[in-house]
Amino acid sequence: MTTNTTTGTPISQKKINDAVWEACDAFRGTVAPEIYKDFVLTMLFLKYISDVWQHHYNEYQAEHGDEPELIEALLANERFTLPMADLGIGDDEDMARANFYSLWERREQPGNGERIDRVLHAIEEANLGKLKDVFQDISFNTGKLGDEATKNAVLNELLTGFASDDLDMSPARVGNLDVIGNAYEFLIKHFAATSGKKAGEFYTPPEVSNLMAELVAPQPGDQICDPACGSGSLLMKCGRQVRDKHGSKDYALFGQEAIGSTWALAKMNMFLHGEDNHRIEWGDTLRAPKLVQGDPDTDAVSLQAFDVVVANPPFSLDKWGQDGASDDKYNRFKRGVPPKSKGDYAFILHMVETLKATTGRMAVVVPHGVLFRAAAEGRIRKALIEENLLDVVIGLPEKLFYGTGIPAAILIFRKGKPSEDILFIDASRDFAADKTQNRLREEDLARVIKTVQERKSVDKYAHVASLDEIRENDFNLNVPRYVDTFEEEEEIELAPLVEDRKNLIVQLESLNQDLSAALARLGYDPA
């Protein structure tokens, strides 16, 4: 059965966001957000590709009439295909299109969980080049959603929510707006806000992503990597820089993510944004980097090098793999091995080793301890500075990141720096407060970018420090050591205040005398 999903009425981003958030009601009170986020985001993906496929089907049908074989042949040339699949449960055969609407039509029947899984697996099999293994860690036929009756009712409600007219995401309604990618970011942000650190680990606020992308300035032809890519939003912001500023799609995105469900989210996110030129690997970057080149059978492998490397890795990751660091075959820890309980410099060292020799530049978000902690981290920091790799240190406001209230910093590294100095920026006081979170405004981002581009000291905001100055501070990069934000209080002259006080006392005495006289005239004894 084909379903005409197109009304032709343009859709707003807010309408989609509100409808998606309302669809989450199916799970609230049944399972925790960190669990049901995967179900909601996967259903959003399924609904979107179903609407796009149906839109194209309707267009071909209007053009060629009732020619199913011709239409199927034309649809086979689209970015993705939705095959026919057996949705029957048990012995009954039930061949139908593997899409959202086949599931919605059968929502009142038993077996919603198994049917959804069958559809997802059929879509994956038909689009292996883009979606291989994406759904292997998600199953709607799970006991996490309750017993069979409860699960069926919950999934019935979920399907009904996504069938809302407001969630018709066919191209005729969406137009050129990137509403689907934005809806993903909207949901990820809200799950991060309600789930704390578990969700915040893979969500970088869009303002921070935009700032980092601007600072590394991706160019046409660049290879761009995020070794802790999470949902992929930071990578895609870098790609958007190339498209928006240069009108080019000549770039490639690379990433690695340790958490399977988050890796799948990144793959779906890339798919929805039309980022087909990407390679996102699943695995632990520090213990087993997957973005390598050479022959692994002979151990003649090396880390792949990139023009741009960006990341917001987990802050101070415990048990990051220190035990095997001294024997690292990629020689990433030649400047020193970070402490076992803090993996910040492990990520930094990995990223530095993946920079191309002449064009490489990187931006990484770190907790402030990275700037000043001593011992092994101090030695690593000193080595990176003396190699003239560190370019800019930017102190950010507190409460920017979901899951932690601590302030963070952005470090910019560059290969082939023309000078040995380092620019320090104290952007910690420039933000807007939104309830429990702070947010960088457009003017805050513009000020940072302008300061980096001009590379000049700015009173109480930025300072260009020489290598000698940094040595004098024992390679401590704590921003307040270099940017003095102290505001002197205006001097108060006491003499005029003393004179004003005397005049007020005289006036008060005169008023008391007038009041006593008035009370006496009324027959009251002022005493």
Task: Briefly note the structural class of the backbone.
Answer: alpha/beta
H/I helix tally? 19
Biggest β-sheet: count, sense, barrel?
Answer: 9 strands, mixed
Q: What are the low-pLDDT stretches, counting only 5+ consecutive residues below 50?
A: 1-6
Please give the number of β-strands: 15
Main features:
alpha/beta; 9-stranded mixed sheet; 19 helices; Rossmann fold; 15 strands; two-stranded antiparallel sheet; Ferritin; 527 residues
Describe the protein.
This protein starts with 12 loop residues before the first helix and ends in a 6-residue tail after the last helix. It has helices spanning 13-23, 33-64, 68-75, 100-105, 112-126, 128-131, 148-162, 171-174, 179-195, 197-200, 206-216, 233-246, 260-272, 344-353, 369-372, 375-386, 442-454, 467-472, 494-521, and strands at 84-86, 95-97, 223-226, 252-257, 278-282, 292-295, 300-303, 308-311, 361-367, 390-395, 408-414, 422-426, 432-434, 437-439, 462-465. Helix 12 links the parallel strand 3 (223-226) and strand 4. Helix 11 packs across helix 12. The strands form 4 sheets. The protein has a 9-stranded mixed beta sheet, sandwiched between helices. A two-stranded antiparallel sheet has the order 1-2. A two-stranded antiparallel sheet has the order 6-7. It has 19 helices and 15 strands. Mean pLDDT is 89; it is low at 1-6.
In short:
With 527 residues, the protein is an alpha/beta fold.
Topology:
Layout: H1 13-23, H2 33-64, H3 68-75, E1 84-86, E2 95-97, H4 100-105, H5 112-126, H6 128-131, H7 148-162, H8 171-174, H9 179-195, H10 197-200, H11 206-216, E3 223-226, H12 233-246, E4 252-257, H13 260-272, E5 278-282, E6 292-295, E7 300-303, E8 308-311, H14 344-353, E9 361-367, H15 369-372, H16 375-386, E10 390-395, E11 408-414, E12 422-426, E13 432-434, E14 437-439, H17 442-454, E15 462-465, H18 467-472, H19 494-521
Parallel strand pairs: 3-4, 3-8, 4-5, 8-9, 10-12
Antiparallel strand pairs: 1-2, 6-7, 9-11, 10-11, 12-15, 13-14
